[in-house]
């Protein structure tokens, strides 16, 4: 069980009531994260309350900007230690979730979490977006792609939009000082087959943190040459 009700209160702020099994899974996820972090350097955030807010609640708070009940498949690009993908999977068990990260030790950690939490319809992949997006199995395969990665939006869009089905969405988790970044990314987003649908700011429950969610709709096919070869999107943004 969760040691205090901070997470439960925060979820309640989103209109969510976790089951006992879900709170157990969040607690176990926290314990695994802190234990493995001692040797794997998975996160700089280790305080119990901060993990609950800055990793768990922040991951799930996206539902204020975009409902997930009609979403079936999600890809989390550059997921790190599993954020936001694993918290979303715990709270919305119907989702089929793919977690992708370029660092194999993180993928090994996520596989351990998946096993220990008895999660189904979720897998972790060791790859770079530039490589995986050229695989026909994964390209245009997802209803929703999410990313909390720190890359510029133009770069993130090149990583993420190729994976999105036409009519699906890509959501970038951003800070609120990103007006210029978003404006500069509009041309790249259009080139990649996307269109900004909404930009909304919401406070993360139980904190003073404001999070910006940039929701991008996929309206046409991404040209086959994108994403460009590994490293190019970050070095030479569109």
Would you kindly provide a written description of the structure presented here, covering whatever features stand out?
It is built from nine helices and seven strands. The protein is α/β, with parallel strands linked by helices and 238 residues long. The chain has a single domain, classed as Vaccinia Virus protein VP39 (Rossmann fold, 3-Layer(aba) Sandwich), CATH 3.40.50.150. A seven-stranded mixed sheet has the order 3-2-1-4-5-7-6, with helices on both faces. Helix 4 links the parallel strand 1 and strand 2. Helix 7 runs parallel beside helix 8. The relative contact order is 0.14.
Number of domains: 1
What's the level 1 CATH class?
Alpha Beta
The value of Rg in angstroms is 17 Å
Q: How many separate helices?
A: 9
CATH superfamily: Vaccinia Virus protein VP39
Percentage of residues in DSSP E strands: 15-25%
CATH architecture name: 3-Layer(aba) Sandwich
CATH topology, what is it called?
Rossmann fold
Q: How far is the N terminus from the C terminus?
A: 47 Å
Structural class: alpha/beta
């Amino acid at each position: 069980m969760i040691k205090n009700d901070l997470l439960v209160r925060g979820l309640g702020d989103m209109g969510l009531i976790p089951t006992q099994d879900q709170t157990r899974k969040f607690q176990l996820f926290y314990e695994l994260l802190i234990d493995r972090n001692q040797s794997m350097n998975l996160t700089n955030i280790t305080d119990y309350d901060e993990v609950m807010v800055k990793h768990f609640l922040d991951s799930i708070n996206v539902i204020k900007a975009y409902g997930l009940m009609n979403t079936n498949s999600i890809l989390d690009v550059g997921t790190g230690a599993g954020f936001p993908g694993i918290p979303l999977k715990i709270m919305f068990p119907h989702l089929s979730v793919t977690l992708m990260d370029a660092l194999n030790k993180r993928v090994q950690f996520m596989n351990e979490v998946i096993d220990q939490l008895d999660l189904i319809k979720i897998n972790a992949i060791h790859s770079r977006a530039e490589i995986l997006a050229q695989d026909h199995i994964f390209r245009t395969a997802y209803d929703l792609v999410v990313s909390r990665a720190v890359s510029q939006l133009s770069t993130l869009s090149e990583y993420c939009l190729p994976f999105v089905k036409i009519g699906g969405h890509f959501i970038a988790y951003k800070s609120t000082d990103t007006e210029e970044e978003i404006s500069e990314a509009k041309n790249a987003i259009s080139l990649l087959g996307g269109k900004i649908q909404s930009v909304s700011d919401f406070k993360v429950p139980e904190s003073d943190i404001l999070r910006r969610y940039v929701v991008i709709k996929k309206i046409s096919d991404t040209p086959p040459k994108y994403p460009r070869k590994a490293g190019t999107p970050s070095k030479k943004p569109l």
